[in-house]
Hints:
By secondary structure, this protein is α+β, with helices and mostly antiparallel strands. It has helices at 14-25, 41-45, 55-63, 106-115, 220-228, 231-242, 289-306, 310-337, 346-358, 362-374, and strands at residues 4-10, 33-36, 50-54, 72-74, 76-81, 87-91, 101-105, 122-124, 129-134, 139-143, 148-157, 171-185, 192-197, 202-208, 211-218, 249-252, 256-264, 272-275, 280-281.
Amino acid sequence: MPTRVDIAIVGGGPVGLSLAAMLVAQGIDPNKIALLDAKPLTLAAADPRSIALSYGSHELLSKISAWPTVATPITQIHVSRRGSFGRTLIESEDYKLPALGYVCRYGDLVHALNACMAIGLHSIRPATVIRLQPRDDCAVLTLSDDIEVSASVVVHSEGGVFSEQSAKTQYRDYTQVAITSTIHATAPSAGRAYERFTSEGPLALLPQTDGYAMVWCVSPITSKRLLALDDNDFLAELQRVFGQRVGTFTRIGPRHHYPLGLNAAPHTTARTVAIGNAAQTLHPVAGQGLNLGLRDAAVLSKMLARDLSADTLTAFERQRQGDRSTTVRITDLMARVFANDSDGSVSQRLLGLSLGALDFVPPAKRLLAEQMMYGWR
């Protein structure tokens, strides 16, 4: 275990791993990089959760040879409002791209990223950081076994390792719970993802292999009721809310749930910087969180390859402000506005019609599609 490195990355999820690989690709000596995570790699690589990667993330990951071997392309995104007639359809062929994005398993992406790690890079797992001490020329990380690692720059990536020190100030509790699972149906539409807004929150079905990855956002009371149902009754409720666009739902995998909120206000010091979920935790609507974190990593790797000073970290925050704030505003607006009134209300009917109007305003539709594919550039 090294006692001194140039860059210590705390958090070995997809964003932290991507940053490590991107730093090496920028020419930084892998022996000067340490990656620390509390979770063993075998556990992370076995994680079955589904994640959505934008086309822009596909480009970033392909550059470092870290694209997962199994990833289902999204060629269409069907967006609708329950109880309203309006809908819009975003298609990759309109932008001359093979896909708008892709769906893969979290563990598959971690495995692909770890496989491209450079020889000599210090991967320290499991390792729990219990203290961070800033000094004039470095920051010192103290691990749970009292071992100390000092670094010129500490990158806080994902997780909540320093949550008590992060001083995040922009917070919103959506009073929603996301229920996730895998779903199978009798008439799946190849390559088509669905984002359906309801009075309690968005319901997303993302194509994955021969079925769908489901993210259903509902109130805490509704989540308790849904989670208490057996599989058949749960599928019946899902069918009632979603409709017959993919036929009849036939099978569901294990269900998981977690509360939703917005927490965004990156905290940077002379020796530390936050990216990914450590900088901003977003509502899952439109699947922007991980993709925003990968863009953080891409920009930071280029800047750290040139200079490790405090000025670089300040410049990084300034450069990322536009993309971060735009993505946060869009996801926050969608999460709140489309779940503001009951199904069939006048306001929600108008919102539904506005979705349909996007098909007749190509510039507005393109802006939405490009934000989802690439972020603010």
